[in-house]
Design brief:
By secondary structure, this protein is α+β, with helices and mostly antiparallel strands. The protein folds into two domains: about 30-150, Coagulation Factor XIII, Chain A, domain 1, CATH 2.70.50.60; about 155-230, no CATH class. It contains five helices and nine strands, in the order αβββββββββαααα. Helix 2 (about 150-190) packs antiparallel against helix 3. The longest helix has about 40 residues, at about 150-190. The N and C termini lie far apart (about 130 Å).
Length: about 230
């Protein structure tokens, strides 16, 4: 009787233990592959982020499991590149609460906007994923070095645009000068040429006008001077 009770107790215990072991696989990390794609990334080189600008990453989740999951949020930290536990900045957490279906792929955007002087830093991005029983799994999206750089390119663009405007203004000024001073001279000269028939003269004038106006900005062509002369 006593022996049977002990045996039953032992059986019950092992049954409970088995049940808990059987329940454990539910908390196994989901079978999800995650990749982060950086803007303008070059294969084999450390990804580069532009300081102060919106760097839009594309995060791809591949669920190879048989159950639906949920991507709740992505959080991130910037750390010293030689010591990832030394966090310099916390990045904005993005909340998605998007379903990641079984055997499917999901692409989510993640934007990093941060002012940092040009340097190499450690970047860690974690996604919080939950399964059907609301177990949370922090999963690594990215955990490696990136380079922050100053937005040199945009400065260069601004300078180029300024240069173009300056050149356009100089040409416009030259155009106005030539129309006012040189053009009347050549017209007078052609009038004095006796060997030209009136038709030839008109043709020559038309030709010189076309040549003249070729490089003059559109809005100057219809100036009152031009119409008066014709
Ligand atoms: C980042 O956030 C954690 C907790 O959320 C905080 O303890 C830490 O001080 C923050 N670090 C920086 C550099 O802001
Ligand atoms: C990220 O990488 C660093 C250095 O390689 C490592 O110490 C750290 O544990 C990693 N973090 C995660 C969340 O995997």
């Amino acid at each position: 009787m006593f022996g049977l009770k002990t045996t039953l107790k032992a059986l019950l215990c092992s049954a409970l233990l088995l049940a808990s072991v059987a329940a454990a696989p539910a908390a196994d990390a989901p079978n999800v592959g995650i990749t982060a794609e950086f803007p303008n990334a070059i294969e084999g080189l450390t990804p580069s982020l532009i300081s102060g600008e919106s760097n839009k990453l594309k995060v791809t989740f591949r669920n190879s499991g048989k159950t639906d999951l949920k991507v709740n949020l992505i959080i991130g930290t910037i750390s010293e590149s030689d010591d990832f536990s030394n966090v310099i900045r916390n990045l904005t957490a993005y909340r998605y609460a998007t379903t990641l279906k079984a055997d499917a792929t999901l692409i989510l955007p993640y934007t990093i906007t941060m002012d940092l002087p040009s340097r190499e830093v450690g970047l860690t991005l974690l996604a919080d994923i939950t399964d059907s029983t609301k177990n949370h799994f922090p999963m690594v999206v990215y955990n490696s070095t990136v380079t922050f750089s100053e937005p040199i390119q945009s400065w260069f663009d601004a300078q180029l645009i300024f240069l173009y405007i300056l050149i356009a203004c100089i040409f416009a000024a030259i155009g106005v000068f030539f129309k006012d001073s040189v053009a009347p001279e050549s017209k007078k000269a052609s009038k004095k040429t006796p060997s030209m028939t009136p038709e030839e003269r008109v043709a020559a004038e038309e030709k010189s006008k076309i040549l003249d106006e070729d490089w003059i900005p559109e809005h100057h062509k219809k100036s009152p001077h031009a119409t008066k002369r014709r």
